[in-house]
Structure formats: C-alpha cells, structure tokens
UniProtKB/TrEMBL annotation:
Belongs to the FlhD family. Its main location: cytoplasm. The keyword 4Fe-4S does not apply. This is Flagellar transcriptional regulator FlhD. It comes from the Bacteria. Functions in complex with FlhC as a master transcriptional regulator that regulates transcription of several flagellar and non-flagellar operons by binding to their promoter region. Activates expression of class 2 flagellar genes, including fliA, which is a flagellum-specific sigma factor that turns on the class 3 genes. Also regulates genes whose products function in a variety of physiological pathways. SUPFAM superfamilies: Flagellar transcriptional activator FlhD. The lineage of its organism: Bacteria, Pseudomonadati, Pseudomonadota, Betaproteobacteria, Burkholderiales. It is found in: Cytoplasm. It holds the Pfam family FlhD.
Length: 107
C-alpha cells in the first residue's frame, strides 16, 4: 500500500467515525459517551459539527479514533480464541465491565 492509499483510507475512516459518532450522540447521548469513550465537551463539539467541518477534519493524516483497550487483560478477554460460545460471551461481558469502569474513572 502506498502513502496516498493509506491517507485515503485514513480520511475514509475518519469521516465514517465522525458520522457514526455524531449520529450516536444525537440519538442517545449517554450511550454515546460510554461507547465512544469521549467527554461531554467532546460530544458537544462533535454534535455541532457541520458536514463541511467533518470533511475538513477527516482530511487530516492522523486517525481520529483510537483503541481503548490498552492492556493485556482486556485484549486477552476479547481475543479468547478457541473458547466455547458461552465462555466467549462471558469474556466479552467481563471486558465490557472493565472498559466501563475505566470510562467512569476517566470521567
């Protein structure tokens, strides 16, 4: 993949993320804050963006979204390959609980 292709994909991912974030914030703010892992102030800014502003922001060369799972425990729970379906559900629930606690700590 060349640099131009990478930049085009970053722009596409950024625009998709901004559109999804704005839609989530406008439809269910509390859920959006949790799911996106953003502050109330950030949610206010994203909610107020015009389409032109979203396009301008999306054209940067840096991804706007990032992985929130920044430790081995959460990654291990989310990627528990070879586990039964019931264990997989429990692992995902456990990971969600851990991330929710971290969201509360950050708020």
């Amino acid at each position: 993949m060349d640099t131009n292709q990478i930049l085009a994909e970053i722009r596409e991912a950024n625009l998709s993320y901004l559109m999804l974030a704005q839609s989530l914030i406008r439809s269910d703010r509390e859920q959006a804050l949790f799911r996106l892992g953003v502050s109330e102030e950030t949610a206010n800014l994203i909610s107020a963006l015009t389409p032109a502003q979203m396009m301008k922001i999306a054209t940067g060369n840096t991804l706007l979204c990032r992985f929130r799972m920044d430790d081995d425990l959460v990654w291990g729970l989310l990627t528990s390959h070879g586990k039964s379906a019931s264990n997989d559900s429990v692992s995902r629930l456990h990971a969600s609980i851990l991330m929710a606690g971290r969201h509360q700590e950050a708020a």
